[in-house]
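Lecture 7 notes. Example A: sequence first, then its structure tokens.
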Amino acid sequence: MKKLLTVLTLTLTGVLSANAGTWELSCSGCHNGSLAPTKTTLLKKYHSKREFLAAVRKATEVGKMPSSLPFESAADELYGGKTAETNTTSKATTSSDEYSKYKRFFKPLPALPKIPADNPLTPEKVKLGKMLYYDPRLSRSKLISCNTCHNLSLGGDDNQKSSIGHRWRTGGRNAPTTLNSGFLRVQFWDGRAPTLEEQAKGPLQAHVEMNSTPKIVVRRLKEIPEYVELFKKAFPGEKDPVTFENVVKAIAAFERTLNTPNSPFQRYLLGDDSALTKEQKEGMKLFVKYGCIACHNGPVLSDGQFHKFKWNKDLGRYRVTKNPKDKYMFRTPQLLNVAVTAPYFHDGSVNSLEEAVKIMARKELGKEISNEDAKKIADFLRSLTGEVPLEARVLPQLPGNNPE
């Protein structure tokens, strides 16, 4: 295992880089013609950088856009003639930061994950999905919503060892965050759901969670006229759009917008050398040198693979595949916003980030690391905390009516 991790770390040296520009990473995902105007449309509408930034300021003032995005840098690329690659390469070349060489191991977070062809992202669908995410009437008891266990004010989880569901039951595993979940290759700790759509079906029906059924969900939604109209707008042309499949499609569409840009580390990768403290930069270096990067890589610092972590009696992926080789195998968790998603591990048994770092180094890398190094790595991990989109965490006004 140690040799494999060493090889992977060395391989990653050459394949992970941050050469994309501000527009591609922070803007292009939403400005795709569906959620917001494309680059071409904007250039036709606003003839100068000044006009563009004036429109941006107006949009941020009324809450249509988050104020923290790098608008000036994006405007420079749009109107200043700088290409994304040239701009980023120039910053890397002129940087005096001694730690900048470690940037090549990491990948900035794009604005949006890949959108599946059978569930295109539209404003109408995202709006509907947000309302369904927050609506407890999808659960049998009418008390539990997606946001109950994946609270967008608490880092996309509930900070519990194991979430409390229907009739105070628990499922035995820690709730992963929904933030940036669209970038994951598979969902759940054991990877039993390949997509966000399939993942959404699970908690809705699990007896220890929302304990509902497709029939209950659809019947209740059809009894609320406002929802019927919203489904018609989100799924135009369908004769009967209020279906369980469309419910999970809408929730998944909303979840694909729950991405957290503008963390200190994202700003650092994009050229702001002052975004991290020296301790955090030192932690980044140790994160690479100890080999953490072998499994925790890519835009959300998860390779999406399954690795053996024998921690308690939970058999992990084996419960899905029944393959003996999958005993104690778990999907690599993402690390974005890890500082606000304690407790850690699949059973939520560790509350300290520093302690989690030391345990993982010992069990996965075979290395005992000092308290000082663990603190530096934990400080680096705290720089991965980004901003939850304002629109996502503002409670929606749900339609009235109380269906049986």
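Example B, a different protein, same format:
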Amino acid sequence: MGKCNPNCSTCTVGTICSTCRHGRYGASCEMLCATGCDRGLCNQTDGKCNCRSNFNGYKCDQCVPGRYGASCEMVCASGCDGGLCNQTDGKCNCRLNFNGYKCDLCVPGKYGEYCNITCSAGCDKTVCNRSDGSCICFPNYTGTKCYQCIEKFNGARCDQCISGRFGTSCEHNCSQGCDDYTCDRNNGSCMCSPNFNGPTCARCLAGRYGALCYIQCSQGCDYNGCNRVTGTCTCMYDYSGPTCEQYNKTYTIMCSANCQVCNQTNGGCLSCRSIDKFGFMCDIECSKHCLNTSCSISGDCNLGCTLNFYGKKCETPCPENCNDVVTGSRCSQENGVCKHGVRDETTSETCKCSLIVPYF
């Protein structure tokens, strides 16, 4: 008599199985019930069984959609198209913005649960953390997600100096004499405000001093002018004092009533009592385009020009084709150069043409 098959629980005649051991099925009990069978039990004929959680199929040998692994214990990545993946290793086809073998990574430049948020432009190589968007910053950017510019920088790419700064690292201040307090990023050159001059507008015009260069040097200063900060100077003959404001010669000529101080040789006014007058006898009105209608004894506007005029006497209007600006004049009050360039006349709706009639 033959011995019963070890996969069998009981045998009938000889080695023919009548019942299978726990977890087996088939004519000779040669097959194992699927891992997904509840309590490891299945029909001894065809292997059909009741499924454990996360399993599916006639024999419970498949994972429910969205699961994979030997025990279907793992969830397919959120980046898997349709939420489906290979039941053995989790590999799948990726949805938009997802990447990786299991589609569990975002494509470069994206982050978030659904990889639908764009990493900051300040992130190095535009790569950031999938969970929170944190990253390593490009130069001039700062913050956890590199959204902010470092101190002294601004602009869409944090590569511009803030207003009033210049230099490779924006380490220098523009001169106080720069119009609108803006200057060239490389060398600090700029358009000058009234009463300033020089490449960087750091000097006062001849005969001026003070923080804003609006104070006139004393008439007693010699041809060298006066100190930019204090107004001190070398005095001409008959003048004295730190700023040479004291005239030491006894007056012998009666000044005109319009004069504040006059020349004792010819009686000509050296300064006027009224800020809106100038000339030999201070009887000529300053240009109406002088700021506060104030001018020097020579008629030059000493406080600058009213809006959109330029020149020493502010009598010349800014060019008509200067681009408009948010605040202030459209052109430099010193030389009339348009601050923000000129309008493109080729786009004008009105053709400024001259009709030439041939002569016969």
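Note on Example B: The longest strand covers residues 221-226. Residues 120 and 147 are 6 Å apart (CA to CA).
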